[in-house]
Structure formats: structure tokens, C-alpha cells
Write a structure and sequence with these properties.
single chain; about 100 residues; mainly beta; five-stranded antiparallel β-sheet; three-stranded antiparallel β-sheet; about 15% helix
Length: about 100
């Protein structure tokens, strides 16, 4: 899920896990949870099984999920150190095997 709720400035807000931004003003827990459900319902996700090796600006890792949101396609990528990050689709490409020496 792209959106979660978090406590900020004395109320609950919708938090965008990709852009690391607050999306709503502080509200009650129930209002924020309803907003999170609405925001996540606008997203479409597709699993990549098995995960596909991809590169970004450098070796990125393995793509395991595509997410289509209002701001375009994002890929969920896990690197060799098991760090998970979201990368814009236009910044990803299939990993090419290394050239032999």
C-alpha cells in the first residue's frame, strides 16, 4: 500500500510512503483511515512473480511490484542489502548481464 496514516501535529494524517509527504490535514483516526482507504483505492498494483532484475541509475535490485497511481507508474525494488525502495518506471530498465572480459 502506498498510503498509510501517521500521527502528526496533534492529529492523524495520510502519509505517502513513496514521496515521504503528508497528504492531508490532521484529522481523527477514523477520518484519516477512511482517507487512506480512498487514496489506496485509486492505486492499481500488479505483482511481478518471479521478481525481475532491474537497473536504475545504477544496479537497483529486483522488481517485485508495479504500482499505478495518480502520478504515474512506480516499481517496488529490493536491492542486494534487502533495502526496499520505490523507483519511477521511467528510471528502471531490465538488467543486462555483464559483458565477458
Amino acid at each position: 500500500m502506498r498510503y498509510n496514516i501517521t500521527l502528526e501535529n496533534g492529529g492523524w494524517v495520510v502519509w505517502d510512503t513513496i514521496t515521504q509527504q503528508t497528504m492531508t490535514d490532521p484529522a481523527t483516526s477514523e477520518e484519516a483511515q477512511e482517507a487512506v482507504n480512498d487514496w489506496n483505492a485509486r492505486c492499481v498494483s500488479r505483482s511481478v512473480d518471479p521478481p525481475v532484475p532491474v537497473d536504475g541509475w545504477g544496479p537497483a535490485g529486483k522488481l517485485s511490484l508495479w504500482l499505478l497511481a495518480e502520478d504515474g507508474w512506480w516499481g517496488l525494488v529490493t536491492n542486494e542489502q534487502h533495502v526496499v525502495c520505490w523507483i519511477r518506471a521511467e528510471d528502471l530498465r531490465p538488467r543486462r548481464p555483464p559483458k565477458p572480459p
